[in-house]
UniProtKB/TrEMBL annotation:
It comes from Stephanodiscus triporus. Residues 30-55 are annotated as: Disordered. This is Peptidase M11 gametolysin domain-containing protein. It comes from the Eukaryota. The lineage of its organism: Eukaryota, Sar, Stramenopiles, Ochrophyta, Bacillariophyta. The keyword Glycosyltransferase does not apply.
Length: 683
């Protein structure tokens, strides 16, 4: 991005909410003064000599500092209607929670009944900035209703952060009383939303070509800026420790780099290897730049602090930010406002390069990955309690505040966005789609594997099921396998989880919400699916963590025909105390999953024989002995073995009952006393 920084460039500022208060109001002795943006009238009298003198002064200072600066003539010719925002940038914060996820969350089921939501809107809390062509960012003032509308536009893909533009009104003094532009004059620019609804407008210049950071593959050059204020306040850890925690420079194995490398299967690399030695003398440690600012953390706004840090970094590096860096992270010692105003661990720009950490939160990989997720255009992940980021199955929730915990990835909504953005997964093979229609009588069934087993998937099972709603708010189903790169997931481990995205078909920045978590044999019903008057039921037929890869067998049924299918399947099974009979029929899909005990096991709750009804005088049955399931045939009293199946193996009986279709017999688990078997007949 070709920015043109000036000494008063505002890298972070916002209005509305705790984050906005911390950024926009001055901190004095631990409190806040009521500094507001002030309206001024532009001075009309300027002399050519003063303009030229000031331009020469700024150019000379920049040359001495070896940095790029704005052209003073841009400020002199500024009019409120001649230089509108070139884009609108959204800012989001990683807030601290009053309590963490419950310890037994992995063992619970949630939401047996889900009301259908086609166009509901989650209350999110993003803030918005106006990016000026001179490189500054100014808070946008508007009503609560206007901010709500902008947030909805952001979450349904209508407004793309750092790309889209909207109609605003501006008023600003560009010169001092003496007619000379000053670096502080940009602080007095007022950007206001005109009355009424939000109106999208064309961008000024080619914003798209220098934005769109939502690319999830390749090397991501990251610069960390460790800030010391005028009073000597900085995080106590030195640059070497910070470098180690982010990049694993000196052997740390739980890092920001390790999380992205794991979840992407090596396709995305966070790196401090800049491919050049020109910065080596300026850095305190690989990837870490130490700067000192001439203002206090205790008596300055967040905006002023980050602004001073950015300019100190640009001066020391001799370049304009972000330059070749994909992300620039400002590490601050703390925030000194009220609890409400400072109740966040970090904040970042959406679809942008800048983010800020506060206090000791820089050392928690999950916090930084969360904020980098915002940089990469990922939205928050909300939980079943309705909270904005209480989905503890996903790093875009708020799950991990620990410097030695980081084996956790993203939910299927985020993974879908990543896959469709030429990211870590293959959109064509790793995503299954189910469009139910609105008439009822349709269904989907298949196996889902967890993201953690993505590299162990010879059968090409999908990792995501996207259930279409006909609107932008689709539902997503996944198997939340708790192993490997996702072994430290904090909620619904080894369970099936169901989510809804707020808008944009899951393709853009948008809030997602966890709607239900299901264990083996459980189901949930979404009432009045697509306002059809019929329900959609999601059944977990089986969760098998013994196979490799582990999988969840999931069935989605819509309407009365699906329910009739379930009843028919159940009716085909007849049993005695020791025998079960499976009648597949010849026209409809039928399945059965159950256990077969050995004859001498003493197990009374499982049958010792499963008869496979053939519709003829010849009978076929299954028995379990010596660690194998035997397929036996009895023709006129003459028994013979026609096959046997080991654990984790499958036998296919072709042209079952002369239908032209096959019967699949799979042994999923086997021990000394019984075996778990699945029968599938699917025309």
């Amino acid at each position: 991005m070709n920015t043109r920084p000036l000494l008063a460039t505002l890298l972070v500022t916002t209005v509305c909410g705790g984050l906005s208060s911390a950024l926009d109001r001055k901190i004095t002795n631990g409190g806040r003064s009521g500094r507001l943006l002030r309206r001024h009238k532009r001075q009309s009298e300027n002399t050519e000599e003063k303009r030229q003198a000031e331009e020469n002064r700024i150019t000379e200072e920049a040359a001495n500092a070896n940095e790029l600066v704005y052209d003073a003539r841009q400020l002199q010719t500024f009019e409120s209607d001649s230089l509108p925002c070139i884009s609108i940038v959204a800012v989001d914060a990683f807030r601290l929670l009053s309590s963490n996820v419950s310890a037994n969350s992995n063992n619970t089921n949630g939401n047996d009944i889900i009301p259908y939501e086609a166009s509901s809107r989650v209350v999110t809390d993003e803030s918005f900035l106006c990016e000026l062509s001179i490189g500054a960012f100014i808070a946008i003032q508007g009503t609560d209703e206007q901010y709500t509308e902008m947030r909805q536009m952001l979450n349904d893909g209508t407004l793309i952060s750092a790309v889209s533009n909207i109609e605003v009104e501006m008023e600003a003094p560009i010169v001092t009383a003496e007619g000379i532009p000053t670096s502080s004059s940009v602080d007095d620019i007022v950007v206001t939303l005109p009355s009424g609804g939000i109106k999208l407008v064309d961008n000024v210049g080619d914003v798209t070509s220098r934005r769109r950071l939502d690319k999830f593959e390749g090397d991501k050059l990251v610069l960390l800026v460790r800030v010391t204020d005028v009073d000597g306040r900085s995080v106590p850890e030195d640059a070497y420790t910070i470098s180690d925690k982010f990049f694993g420079t000196y052997g740390d194995t739980v890092t920001v780099k390790s999380v992205f490398e794991g979840c992407s299967f090596g396709k995305m690399q966070i790196t401090s290897d800049y491919g050049t030695e020109k910065y080596d003398s300026k850095l305190s440690a690989p990837g870490v730049l130490d700067v000192t600012i001439d203002i206090s953390l205790m008596s300055s706004t967040q905006t002023a602090i980050v602004n001073a840090a950015a300019n100190a970094a640009m001066t020391k590096m001799g370049m304009s930010l972000p330059g070749s860096f994909a992300h620039v992270i400002f590490v601050l010692e703390g925030c000194y406002g009220s609890d409400q105003e400072c109740n966040f661990a970090a904040y970042g720009y959406i679809n942008h390069w800048a983010l800020v950490t506060l206090g000791d939160n820089w050392q928690y990989p999950a916090v930084i990955v969360h904020e980098l997720g915002h940089n990469l255009n990922l939205g928050h992940s909300g939980g079943m309690d309705g909270g904005t980021y209480t989905d503890h199955t996903c790093l875009m929730g708020n799950p991990l505040f620990d410097d030695n915990v980081g084996k956790m990835c993203f939910n299927p909504v985020k993974n879908f966005q990543i896959a469709k953005t030429s990211g870590w997964y293959t959109a064509d093979t790793d995503i299954a789609y189910y469009n139910s229609g609105i008439m009822g009588g349709t269904s989907w069934r298949g196996r889902l594997i967890g993201v953690a087993d993505y590299d162990n998937n010879p059968s090409n099972y999908p990792i995501i099921l996207k259930v279409e709603t006909g609107s932008g708010s689709d539902y997503f189903v996944s198997f939340n396998r708790a192993t490997g790169i996702n072994s430290e997931v904090q909620e619904a481990g080894d369970m099936v989880a169901i989510y809804r995205v707020d808008g944009g078909d899951g393709l853009v920045y948008s809030q997602s919400m966890l709607k239900a978590t299901l264990s083996d044999g459980r189901s949930t019903t979404i009432e009045n699916w697509r306002k059809s008057g019929l329900d959609l039921t999601i059944n977990v037929i089986e969760i098998n963590t013994w196979s490799s890869p582990a999988y969840a067998d999931v069935e989605v049924l819509f309407g009365t025909q699906g329910m009739a299918y379930m009843q028919t399947s159940a009716a085909t099974m007849t049993s005695t105390s020791s025998t079960v009979t499976f009648d597949s029929g010849t026209t409809d899909s039928k399945t059965w999953t159950g256990y077969i005990a050995t004859m001498d096991s003493g197990e009374t709750s499982f049958p010792t024989r499963v008869n496979l009804y053939t519709g003829s005088a010849t009978s076929v049955y299954l028995e379990y002995r010596d660690g194998e399931v035997f397929i036996m045939k009895d023709s006129s009293g003459n028994e013979s073995e026609i096959g046997k199946i080991w654990e984790w193996s499958t036998e296919i009986v072709e042209d079952w009952r002369y239908t032209g279709y096959d019967l699949s017999i799979e042994v999923k688990e086997a021990n000394a006393e019984y075996a778990s078997v699945e029968l599938v007949f699917r025309p």
